[in-house]
Amino acid sequence: MKIESTIQGLSESLKTARTNQKIIGLVPTMGNLHQGHLNLVREARKKCDIVVVSIFVNPIQFGPNEDYDSYPRTLEQDSKLLEEVGCDYIFAPTVEQMYGNQPRLTNISVSGITADLCGLQRPGHFDGVAVVVTKLFNIVRPEIAFFGEKDFQQLAVIRQFVRDLNMPIEITGVPIARAEDGLALSSRNGYLSEEHRKTAPIIHQCLKIAEQDLQQGKKLADVLANIASTLTQAGFVIDYVEARTPELQKIEEFNQNIVLFIAAKIGTTRLIDNLQVQHNA
Amino acid sequence: MKIESTIQGLSESLKTARTNQKIIGLVPTMGNLHQGHLNLVREARKKCDIVVVSIFVNPIQFGPNEDYDSYPRTLEQDSKLLEEVGCDYIFAPTVEQMYGNQPRLTNISVSGITADLCGLQRPGHFDGVAVVVTKLFNIVRPEIAFFGEKDFQQLAVIRQFVRDLNMPIEITGVPIARAEDGLALSSRNGYLSEEHRKTAPIIHQCLKIAEQDLQQGKKLADVLANIASTLTQAGFVIDYVEARTPELQKIEEFNQNIVLFIAAKIGTTRLIDNLQVQHNA
């Protein structure tokens, strides 16, 4: 495994692979890797000849009051994990390497599906994601890129701009990795106090109960209200509890496959989770 | 020479070239080709192994009151010209092929340099250009793409988003092709009445006189005012007469290399032209 910190270095490293028609896979991350990320790499390892993992805490996808500065940077530990799981290249550029010292004038925005859920609380977030992912795609030029389903809306946004702009890249979503108690793995779980860490799995429990309730015929609106009240009672401050189609369209009733979405704060930590619920007609 | 009308057909045609590491050049056009376009193709022929010319009248770069419907479509004649000049593939997709039948949610915008010159009169125009050029880049995946300097601002916008998004493509600008009387070649010249066609070269004459005046020490503001009054007297309705740096920054004095820009209507036809003026320090 090799660590590249410059675009030019990475391009030269990948030149031979490209000449030899190797299938290149990209796993974009912000580092501080957990089993969720490593599952993405394992999936890439299965499908690709060359696996590139990018580690870059992207400033332009953080809001002014978000955790850009404090976001955990753990490159040494990440490298060990990636070596074990079979990554070929880590691409770990600086902010200057990615954004240069000339002002960036170009923006990529996806309308509609970003005006909702995390897009409401995080204006500009998905533009920042679209720009950095496009840059990484153009730098690495992978055949396949891998993203976690935990960031379900992000995955939908990426699929959308890839389709709209004819990017020659297959987007693969990988299921959420969870702790034994059900908590969706996230780098931000590291912010939780011991007490809040014990409370956090309630999010997933709510989703599983909601799934059962829906499949037993309870009304969608009641099920969502039930999640909200359980979480509030447990000390969460709710950002949203919503149901959408897998394409993120609003839905009034449980009459097709849907996705349940939760975003909620406990203490100062914002957690998100989701669950795909099958409709058995 | 082969004409492809589908993305898949073109991809398959280019597969062998790509496998064999051929250098692919792209000349994006809206068809109705003249010597200006053919110069782009000749330049591509010199630098590339495989030359692709796209012919696509892109609806999303036209404003609601512009000439999308009446824009000349002359594929048969274009094909003959391209065959003579050494094009390998024409890519001539339908609107449906390019934009599908699902709504497009993704936009690419370049700020700053589009808020000026043609951007003022044509809101959304450069977004439409950025989107279609990005799509064509992703479909054709050329090493080099060729654009005319007549659309100087468009060229600057394309260079900007290519740099900002790390697109792995070299952008080559090609000088303006002119009729013997100096009129910059343009598909829109075909809209001119016989009388207006005789008047139109005044635009270029004004630019050449302005260049002389500047190099002889006349004040920039006076030179621009002089162009405007000459054109108005000749029957033009001026959209803009401006001087900018080659990076499109505003400028008060002629104290470095600059570009003079004119956009003006004669009858119902809007013409644009520009001239790069060297500053000999």
Automatic annotation (TrEMBL), chains A, B:
Subunit note: Homodimer.
Protein name: Pantothenate synthetase
GO biological process, any: pantothenate biosynthetic process
Originating organism: Acinetobacter faecalis
Chief location of this protein within or outside the cell: cytoplasm
Subcellular locations according to the entry: Cytoplasm
EC assignment: 6.3.2.1
Catalytic activity: (R)-pantoate + beta-alanine + ATP = (R)-pantothenate + AMP + diphosphate + H(+)
Residue ranges of the TM segments: none
Note: The reaction proceeds by a bi uni uni bi ping pong mechanism.
UniProt xrefs under CDD domains: PanC
Source organism phylogeny: Bacteria, Pseudomonadati, Pseudomonadota, Gammaproteobacteria, Moraxellales
Active-site residues (renumbered): H37
Known role: Catalyzes the condensation of pantoate with beta-alanine in an ATP-dependent reaction via a pantoyl-adenylate intermediate.
A Gene Ontology molecular function term of the record: pantoate-beta-alanine ligase activity
Binding sites annotated in the UniProt record for ATP: 30-37, 148-151, 177, 185-188
Similarity remark: Belongs to the pantothenate synthetase family.
Alphabetized UniProt keyword annotations: ATP-binding, Cytoplasm, Ligase, Nucleotide-binding, Pantothenate biosynthesis
